[in-house]
Amino acid sequence: MTEPLLRVRGLKIGATVYPPGEKPRDIEIVHGVDFDLERGKVLGLIGESGAGKSTIGLASMAYGRGGVRITGGEVWVNGRDILKAGLRDIRRLRGGEVTYVSQSAAASFNPAKPIMEQVTEAAISQGKFTRREAEKRAIGLFRKLGLPDPDNIGRRYPHQVSGGQLQRCMTALALCPEPDLVVFDEPTTALDVTTQIDVLAAIKEAIHDTGVAALYITHDLAVVAQVSDDIMVLKMGNMVEYGPTDQIINAPREEYTRALVSVRQIEHPEKLHRQASPVLSCENITARYKGTKFDVLKDVSVQLYPGQTLAVVGESGSGKSTLARVITGLLPPSGGRIVFSGRELTPDLKSRPKEDLRELQMIYQMADVAMNPRQTVGTIIGRPLEFYFGLKGEAKQRRIQELLDEIELGKGFQDRYPAELSGGQKQRVCIARALAAKPKLIICDEVTSALDPLVADGILKLLLNLQKIEDVAYLFITHDLATVRAIADSIAVMYQGRFVRYGTKTEVLSPPFDDYTDLLLSSVPEMKLGWLEQVLATRKMESAGN
Amino acid sequence: MFRYMPVSAMIGLTLTGLYFLAAIFAPLIAPYGMAQVVGDVWEPSSREHLLGTDNIGRDLLTRMIYGGRTTIFIATMATILSFVTGSILGFLAAVLGGWADQVLSRMVDLLMAIPSLILALVVLAVLPVTVTTLIVVMGLLDATRVFRLARAVAVDINVMDYVEAAKLRGEGRGWIIFREILPNALSPLVAELGLRFIFMVLFISTLSFLGLGVQPPLADWGGIVKENKDGIIYGIGAALYPAIAIATLAISVNLVADWVLNRTTSLKGGRG
Predict the structure, then answer these.
(1) Is B271 among the domain residues?
(2) B171 reaches A (C-beta below 8 A)
(3) Could you count the other beta carbons within 10 Å of the beta carbon of residue A294?
(4) CA dihedral A258, A259, A260, A261 (to 10 degrees)
(5) Do A115 and A200 reside in the same domain of the chain?
(6) How far apart are CA A212 and CA A204, in angstroms?
(7) Same structural domain for residues A235 and A306?
């Protein structure tokens, strides 16, 4: 048997934490992981945040990020243990034998240099190619990755290409020095679904054509199933399961893997609305931001009935969040009117009576910035009670505890600060804060996007339960169609400030589709092997047919 | 909270503490009266006069202790004044935005465009120089710098989702400024507090040295330098003691401010 390209044995990684007012102490974040990677193969590392996947990925270039140290084990690349290698050898390794693609290309490219200079830099400084050869190679890679105008795109600066294109440029950067191994660290996580599929296809093809081996790190099992040969599931720095992709997806052995595979399959039959009057009705809303001459929302009309969920779907920049800002009064619309539980809302926030403010609550995407870090959970949830209902003392305490029980947190949370909560717990506290006002409508702006899949599932289930108890309506803004399927009663698909499709869930999700909805629906990764090829083949056929 | 305190902060805190204690208990620990002439001009240090005597034969140690009391008192009051006005106006400018922000900010720009020492000299030349005027003039001039910092920090915090959530709830400006913004702006402001205090010490010393600050016979460190500066020509170091006092106070307060900044940022829920 030939020597594998990358062999990791008993890898342990530690870090130092500095709790305030205590002595700094060392903790272990990866507790001994073993795996092999053959030449030309792709290994997917999957797990929730904090599972240690990125740390393991970086360890394969003998690197620890910000205070992270590799404390034990062996990492063999090309027949030598790189943890024992000298600095000179490490320099040859990083950017020569092993390269890295990070999650946010926009944050990783130097905005002051043209793309070509950055793509070829490692190849030239490693002495693998001359400038001319490297540039020719880069252009070849741009073409292979499906970038527009491959001959000239290198002259552009990072801000002159789109997010998806920049992510492909970064893949070109990683492949340019002809490495043996590329570490992809969540390369498609920050992209829209419709862009993700292109980048994913480009990466897969490039890996296949160049015969490079890859470590593919992601939290999305459906994505990793499309590109990798083997998958390793990680949890809290421990290996949970390691096997061929087929087995992990179709016959997972461990409980945790099964949970990951079956995630996002909440069944939610659509509720028919009783013929009551709508709780929210937007009529011909048009809006633009101050100082611009571009309408972000164009003639948007929508109705939402009590106890129902309307999902607004679209990619970033389609105007979904702007709709929320208009409804809440943060951005007065330039045209149209909003009727909320039978009353017409004034366009701007300041002139709205307290009752309107109370009945319309909002939950944000990033729970950690939606809560004041210097207030305790008790203060955060207690304030709306005090503000809207004048509750004080014992009565307030009791109601806070009731709300905490409702969001399944229980006792002992009142005196904690947001920094002492996990991501899912933070979002639950935000939900409790919204519920405290006894609202008729809650606007949920991408509330599950920043969460791990299993945690997001928990939040969605909680929201569905609460809807049954409190009979509250949700306006659910999201870019994730799996979330929509799980929670919505009606759906509005938004594209460039307009609703391109609007109706009940069954109507919107059954054919015939318009082009955009079709693109959006078919771009959502499915948890099965060969999905990517299937979609691309269908699209090719369709475009040939046209 | 004092466990695992770095050595530098320990030194800073001890020295600062000593200076402040000496200032507070000056009448109890000073060996002689503040303006009492007790010996010859510029006597060298002896058992009766540890630091010697000054240019008219007063005990220098006594003058130093009383001088510290005046200097530290004026600097502290002026710092408090500048922080209260500067940060409240800065937060208001950030929260109100629009023309209110423009008016306040441009006024501050105008004040900052004139070197503050010159402005202070002009104002003090017109007004009667008392301790109160000194505090008010110094405090208001320095408030411009606090305003800038407070406004910059508050503008950042004002766009956070939790402030938006408070606005959506219908909260008034008082709640937004004092309950949402202030607690989160505190740590940069506290670090600035130490720095501004030192500038105040230097400012009052400069004014006194120029003769427009604290008026004799009241002692203050700048004034002691002024009174004894001629002695330097004859090799008499009386003017150096207040200089050393100013320098060590400046350094030790800075050491404390550094430590406070480090601690508050890693506090529970601190903003990294």
Answers:
(1) no
(2) yes
(3) 8
(4) 50
(5) yes
(6) 11
(7) no
Is residue A493 within 8 angstroms of chain B, CB to CB? no
The reply to whether A417 and A479 lie within a common domain is: yes
Cβ atoms A121, A113 nearer than 8 A:
no
Helical pair A377-389 and B161-169, crossing angle rounded to 10 deg? 20
Give the model confidence (pLDDT) of A396-428 as tens digits. 999 999 999 988 887 888 888 888 888 889 999
* Distance (Å, whole) CA B76 – CA A356: 47
ipTM of the complex: 0.79
Interface test with B, best of A23, A328, A374 (most B CBs within 10 A): A374
* C-alpha span between B153 and A220 (Å, rounded): 37
Structural domain containing residue B110: 7-265
Residue A334's nearest CA partner among A299, A302, A386 is: A299
**Pairwise CA distance, residues A50 & A58, whole Å:** 14
Contacts 24+ apart (CB under 8 A), B103-106: B104/B147, B105/B151
Q: How far is B271 from chain A (nearest CA, A)?
A: 7
Say which DSSP state A271 is in: P
Per-residue pLDDT tens digits for B49-90: 888 888 888 888 888 899 899 999 999 999 999 999 999 999
- The DSSP 8-state label assigned to residue B176 in this structure reads I
Nearest to B154 by CA among B137, B123, B177: B177
CATH number at residue A365: 3.40.50.300
Say if residue A249 is in the same domain as residue A285. no
Number of domains making up chain B:
1
A69 in a domain, yes or no?
Answer: no
